[in-house]
Amino acid sequence: MSGRVVLATHNPHKIEEFAAIVATTRPDVEVTGYDGPEPVEDGTTFRENALIKARAAAAHTGLPALADDSGICVDALGGAPGAFSAYWAGQRKDAVANRELLLDQLRDIRDPRRGAQFVSTIALVIPATDGPAVEHVVQGVWPGRLAVTPAGEGGFGYDPVFIPDGQPGAAERTVAEWTAEEKNADSHRSRAFQQLVPLLAEL
């Protein structure tokens, strides 16, 4: 069944990335951006914040809503920044400042103790006219480690400092050095979305 779904974010990078991922398996599903008010993300987990955003977008638009809450979880920091990744260096959501602070906090930590994971939690909220909304939550994890210094011009957020596992040792790259196609095929969002595909049949 074809459908239209609103992505609960004002981040154009996420909209572009999500639309590309969705198109690989459900080209009949149109992903549109969200232009409504941003809810207060007062959850302490990816799941809580994803549901807050998806519920708000579904209520505002009346459309099925997808929301991604994602970030980087660093082993040496006990899983932080986690749900606070976007605000790690303050409320300005400054990606460069976030990366610099994270690298500074791990400046004395060397491999193999620089393990990290990108985590994406996606909530799908489908409004109902005669009852409560239907809600689903899935999660994708992309294991890797933190680089010592940023590298690459692509991607966004923590991409320049994240080196995914599974690359040839002599040719390891940060995500910011990958093409968009490479990233979309293997990222934490892609891994989460693969679990979501069967649920989109409800749209």
Automatic annotation (TrEMBL):
<feature type="binding site">
    <location>
        <begin position="156"/>
        <end position="159"/>
    </location>
    <ligand>
        <name>substrate</name>
    </ligand>
</feature>
<feature type="active site" description="Proton acceptor">
    <location>
        <position position="69"/>
    </location>
</feature>
<feature type="binding site">
    <location>
        <position position="183"/>
    </location>
    <ligand>
        <name>substrate</name>
    </ligand>
</feature>
<comment type="similarity">
    <text>Belongs to the HAM1 NTPase family.</text>
</comment>
<feature type="binding site">
    <location>
        <begin position="9"/>
        <end position="14"/>
    </location>
    <ligand>
        <name>substrate</name>
    </ligand>
</feature>
<keyword id="KW-0479">Metal-binding</keyword>
<feature type="binding site">
    <location>
        <begin position="188"/>
        <end position="189"/>
    </location>
    <ligand>
        <name>substrate</name>
    </ligand>
</feature>
<dbReference type="InterPro" id="IPR002637">
    <property type="entry name" value="RdgB/HAM1"/>
</dbReference>
<protein>
    <recommendedName>
        <fullName>dITP/XTP pyrophosphatase</fullName>
        <ecNumber>3.6.1.66</ecNumber>
    </recommendedName>
</protein>
<dbReference type="InterPro" id="IPR029001">
    <property type="entry name" value="ITPase-like_fam"/>
</dbReference>
<keyword id="KW-0546">Nucleotide metabolism</keyword>
<feature type="binding site">
    <location>
        <position position="69"/>
    </location>
    <ligand>
        <name>Mg(2+)</name>
    </ligand>
</feature>
<comment type="function">
    <text>Pyrophosphatase that catalyzes the hydrolysis of nucleoside triphosphates to their monophosphate derivatives, with a high preference for the non-canonical purine nucleotides XTP (xanthosine triphosphate), dITP (deoxyinosine triphosphate) and ITP. Seems to function as a house-cleaning enzyme that removes non-canonical purine nucleotides from the nucleotide pool, thus preventing their incorporation into DNA/RNA and avoiding chromosomal lesions.</text>
</comment>
<dbReference type="GO" id="GO:0036220">
    <property type="term" value="F:ITP diphosphatase activity"/>
</dbReference>
<dbReference type="Pfam" id="PF01725">
    <property type="entry name" value="Ham1p_like"/>
</dbReference>
<keyword id="KW-0547">Nucleotide-binding</keyword>
<comment type="subunit">
    <text>Homodimer.</text>
</comment>
<feature type="binding site">
    <location>
        <position position="70"/>
    </location>
    <ligand>
        <name>substrate</name>
    </ligand>
</feature>
<keyword id="KW-0378">Hydrolase</keyword>
<keyword id="KW-0460">Magnesium</keyword>
<dbReference type="InterPro" id="IPR020922">
    <property type="entry name" value="dITP/XTP_pyrophosphatase"/>
</dbReference>
